[in-house]
Amino acid sequence: MLDSKVPAGPLAEKWSKHKFEMKLVNPANKRKFTILVVGTGLAGASAAASLAELGYNVKTFCYQDSPRRAHSIAAQGGINAAKNYQNDGDSVFRLFYDTIKGGDYRAREANVYRLAEVSVNIIDQCVAQGVPFAREYGGLLDNRSFGGAQVSRTFYARGQTGQQLLLGAYSALNRQIKKGKVKSYTRHEMLDLVKIDGHARGIITRDMITGKIESHEGHAVLLCTGGYGNVFFLSTNAMGCNVTAAWRAHKRGAYFANPCYTQIHPTCIPVTGDHQSKLTLMSESLRNDGRVWVPKTKELSEKLRTGALNPAEIKEEDRDYFLERKYPSFGNLVPRDVASRNAKEMVDDGRGVGKSGVAVFLDFADAIKRLGKDTVEAKYGNLFDMYYQITDENPYEQPMRIYPAVHYTMGGVWVDYNLMTTVPGLYALGECNFSDHGANRLGASALMQGLSDGYFVIPFTVGDYLAKLGSFAPVDKNHPAFEETRKEVEDKINTLLSLKGSKTIDDIHKELGKIMWEYCGMARTAEGLTKAKGLIQALKKEFWTDVKVLGENDELNMSLEKAGRVADFIELGELMVDDALNRSESCGGHFRLESQTEEGEAMRDDENFTYVAAWAFAGENQPEVLHKEELVFENVKLTQRSYK
């Protein structure tokens, strides 16, 4: 049975009551414990800095050359908080409700309410660190709107919010590194989890410069390693983003939850060809002032594609502002899954724009006319410049071309209310876990969750676990489990290095990405998913028999790094397909064509699927075992989502 450990009592009192009831570690005893933090993005950096500030000994690990390289910097548009500075009707409960509804009622109420409750503290913390949030004329922090909300609650620093927040967390982390409370291991990749008597007690890493395989012991392990969007090869994630740490922990007993829930972001620069290795996200904040449209007829779209017309020559009456037309209450600020599906419908209808025809317009002409170019530039200038640098098109003079792309992953390692996985002593924070967003994440909520988990949740919950250990003794680094796990890692590396086939690792990764996008992407069917499962199984055999891994272990070896990550992506891809097949309903980012309303919206099956699907590893090449955590809704009513 899965025990979510959600505290009893009224929703608004659960977290406060739980904090009081948790056991504490005496300040003098905190320095006797060591905590390993894997990943140094917003969740990892904030957790490491907070825990070290409390007195714990912390080791951090990241595969980049600096924590500043973490992919959190790419979250551009903002961070949500229920401050209600605009006095427009926002509240903690409204943020909670919007998040539950935006996730299509597939998230745990207690976790989501805590996230909304803690959000108000996050902003204060970041301001105190010097994060340069935009301010309005009265001196208060400014806000803008994001999808799925009818209030303005998104705090921002131009189009660089993630980067500025990470600099704040990185500064706090650096302070602790200087004090000697944090030991930072850069260019180190976690390759396995070490368990002693069923508890997480260490990790095995590879020094990516020298190839040295190292063992690190600790009383608790925190996974803060982000999402698995690169299973699709093309995504908005940095190319190094991977699932390896989470997946290896999964194979050691940590359940993997809701893997089929993938967020497709509607505002990305369209694919231009097979030469691309990643896609570029244009912030959702642009939908505040940009209007999404396509021509009303296929004929006009064809003229745009061939260059016979330019966008400015399309008359207003010949434009279809389809989001404004279909969803008058929310307009261009509908949630991401809704905006993405509608963009796909326009393209499938033959009304796409751009040379490929696989794009829609995001037009700022009205905003520039209404606000002036200087105002628009002040709000979005760096985003406009980025678009210009990539496309050689000036968005001040012509509409941006956008199309949905894989972005955030809502599924992840299963955790209880304390953020602990099914392996005692192993925690998962931020995008690495599944907990707070259900089937679809609202914009500006990723930064909120990462910092919430790191600054305000894990310092309490990990302390409760450590206080109950009953011993302050160091972890025995000579325990046989370390050597056994280390040998398994070395054996896998040697197996990978022995592969001398004809296919490159990127060839296999691209093929996996095409399968996932085609059959487990924006729309899924039972027939397509069944086909995908067979294709992935065949691809797995091809990988282990015909891929070519170059070089040796004892050196900087990107070929070896990629090979291990792609091997894990292939196994994850099969589980994603299994999860999508099992969930024969539509909800949020999981859209089964067999389950839709007459108007083409996602149709849930609350009678049969109001649960978290948590999968347990059962052995190599064995079907995973499904465990269900039933979701109970006591404070919101399950209704069909509507943004009209």
TrEMBL record:
Keyword vocabulary terms for this entry: Flavoprotein, Oxidoreductase
Keyword Nucleotidyltransferase included in the entry's annotation: no
Domain FAD-dependent oxidoreductase 2 FAD-binding: 35-447
Cofactor: FAD
A Pfam family that the UniProt record links to this protein: Succ_DH_flav_C
Domain of life: Bacteria
Gene3D superfamilies documented for this protein: FAD/NAD(P)-binding domain, Fumarate reductase/succinate dehydrogenase flavoprotein-like, C-terminal domain, Succinate dehydrogenase/fumarate reductase flavoprotein, catalytic domain
Domain Fumarate reductase/succinate dehydrogenase flavoprotein-like C-terminal, first and last residues per copy: 509-643
Keyword Oxidoreductase on entry: yes
Alphabetized NCBIfam families for the sequence: PRK07573.1, sdhA_Bsu
Designated name of the protein: Succinate dehydrogenase flavoprotein subunit
Organism expressing this protein natively: Sphingobacterium griseoflavum
